Amino acid sequence: MVARAMANFSLADLRLVNPRDGWPSEKARAAASRADHVIDSVRLFDTVEAAVADLNFVLATTARPRDSFKPVRGPEAASLDLRRRIADGERTGILFGRERWGLNNHEVGLADEIVTFPVDPDFASLNIAQAVLLMSYAFQVAGREGDLSPRFAAKAPAPAPKQDLFRLFEHLEASLDRAGYFFPEAKREVLAQNLRTMLTKAGLSEPEVRTLRGVVKAFDHEAGRLASGDESEAGETGA
Amino acid sequence: MVARAMANFSLADLRLVNPRDGWPSEKARAAASRADHVIDSVRLFDTVEAAVADLNFVLATTARPRDSFKPVRGPEAASLDLRRRIADGERTGILFGRERWGLNNHEVGLADEIVTFPVDPDFASLNIAQAVLLMSYAFQVAGREGDLSPRFAAKAPAPAPKQDLFRLFEHLEASLDRAGYFFPEAKREVLAQNLRTMLTKAGLSEPEVRTLRGVVKAFDHEAGRLASGDESEAGETGA
After folding, report:
1. What average pLDDT does the structure give for chain B?
2. A235–B204: do the CB atoms touch at under 8 Å?
3. Sequence-ordered strand ranges (E) for A9-138
4. Which residues have C-beta within 8 Å of that of residue B212, sequence separation ≥ 6?
5. Nearest-angstrom CA–CA distance, B96 and B131
6. What is the mean pLDDT of the segment spanning B208-230?
7. What is the edge-to-edge ordering of all strands in the sheet holding B113-115?
8. Domain tRNA/rRNA methyltransferase SpoU type: where (chains A, B) (predicted)?
9. Are strands A15-17 and A43-45 parallel, antiparallel or unpaired?
10. Measured between CB atoms, which of A117, A179, A227 is closest to B218?
11. Measured on CA atoms in the order B70, B71, B76, B77, is the torsion positive or negative?
């Protein structure tokens, strides 16, 4: 039903993370009606991280605004922004959650912004195919109203591909581990999540991610020098 | 499913003409999820003429523009027009056709204007519940017209006072100096400026600045420990 909803509005790039009932699925193909081209080009991933790795900008759809500092937009505003980013050459994606309970906090945390639908707060009951249908429609409408989209003075640099950002997280967290930052151990996850949220929110470009990798590397080298008692390497770690 | 689609966007006045499976219908109530208020207030009619008799203005939804001289609009333009008419005190309605073959020419002829959805002409496959969902959504969006700026789920935290940010710059740069990051010396100013620009652009809140100070402090402590050959301090630097 998701494939069919997408096909109505000319969208075809569907990525699945650990589909519950396996893949390929004849049941899915039947429900897709004649949207075989969407089903045929589905790509499978083990993790959400892997599924968004090559993207510059990711929206997470949620039923209601979370207790989160990420920007929240409606489907129209989000679609206009996506159109602008795509026109600028960015690779973008939209995350939809599981049928029953949506995206978990970790998954929302991987996205740049949040999209919610303007549903009646007393009756919100969209299934995933309906959410995809509305988002696909809004994206299509945004393309036909391009004249209404905001103009930008200077072209903002694209956020780095997510895989670069995730590698920065790993690098920083490994170095902080060594430095004893994650203390007490019980707070580890919340401390790491705070850092990831902050770095995601910053919308870092590829050169900026590289700069921060250089910063962490400088501390790594320093620790390595001091641990080996060798001061001669000083100065080799400048970006 | 139609009742449920309507309820998501606060619509409740559903009129049925000769429902195939009779009425009331427990099957319909089950499919409506919790949209009982829509099901309970359904009105039944024998003919489309009777169903629209009290209305001032009627839209007919069709899968594709007919060979007709009626005006054809998209869902957004039609919704804006409906909103204006309702504000002027008009009674309005939207006709949806049967699941398989839509509205016949006679039925379309009863309407004032036609609405079509901007679906891919090579893949148009909306069922009636999806058509109602899209039209209900468009009507809801038309009511919020102009609301394109992002909201925040939680109140966005204010950026930290500049003095806190400047202290972070000083702290980070002193630590990076020690670590040998600013190399060669000639690139010092541009490297430092890049870091400052990035951290300013991120719009860091006071807690976020504190978190980053904690990160730098962890590396400071590690360097201190390693330089003094004392490993006992490990773990004291967690934020």
Report:
1. 87
2. no
3. 15-17, 43-45, 57-61, 71-73, 92-95, 113-115
4. A198, B168, B172, B199, B204
5. 8
6. 93
7. B72-73, B113-115, B57-61, B92-95
8. 2-137
9. parallel
10. A179
11. negative
Q: Please provide residue B205's backbone torsions phi and psi, each rounded to the nearest 5 degrees.
A: -80, 170
Handedness of CA B58, B59, B62, B67 (dihedral sign): positive
First to last CA, chain A: 50
d(CA A185, CA A60): 29
Contacts of residue B94, Cβ cutoff 8 Å, sequence gap at least 6: B58, B59, B60, B61, B82, B115, B135
Encoded tokens for B112: 């004032």
Q: How many CB pairs under 8 A join A and B?
A: 211
**Is B6 in contact with B38 (CB distance < 8 Å)?**
yes
Q: Is the Cα dihedral A64, A70, A71, A77 positive or negative?
A: negative
Structural tokens at position A105: 């906090």
Query: How many other C-beta atoms lie within 10 A of the C-beta of residue A122?
Result: 9
| Ordered structural domains, chain B, with CATH | 2-143 (3.40.1280.10), 162-228 (1.10.8)
- CA pair distance A51, A54, nearest whole angstrom: 8
A206 touches chain B (CB under 8 A): no
CA–CA distances in Å: residue A105 to residues A68, A102, A130, A173, B153: 9, 10, 22, 19, 14
Average pLDDT value for residue range A66-70: 70
Q: State which amino acid sits at residue A220.
A: D
Residue of A nearest to B237 (CA): A181
If one counts every other C-beta atom within 10 angstroms of the C-beta of residue A76, the result is: 24
Tell me how far apart the alpha carbons of residues B169 and B173 are, in angstroms, rounded to a whole number.
Answer: 6
Chain A positions touching B148 (Cβ under 8 A) are 74, 76-77, 80
Length of chain B: 239
**Overall size of chain A counted in residues:** 239
Report the complex ipTM.
0.74
pLDDT digits (tens, 9 = 90+) for A145-185: 544 433 444 566 788 999 999 999 999 999 999 999 998 98
Tokens representing residue B21 in the block:
């499976």
A229's tokens: 């008692």
Query: Quick one: pLDDT band at residue A235, thresholds 50, 70, 90?
Result: very low
**Segments of chain B assigned E as strands:** 15-17, 43-45, 57-61, 72-73, 92-95, 113-115, 151-152
The minimum CA-CA distance between A14 and chain B, rounded to whole Å, is: 16
Nearest 5°: the CA angle A137, A142, A148 is 155
Query: B141 vs A222: CB contact, 8 Å cut-off?
Result: no
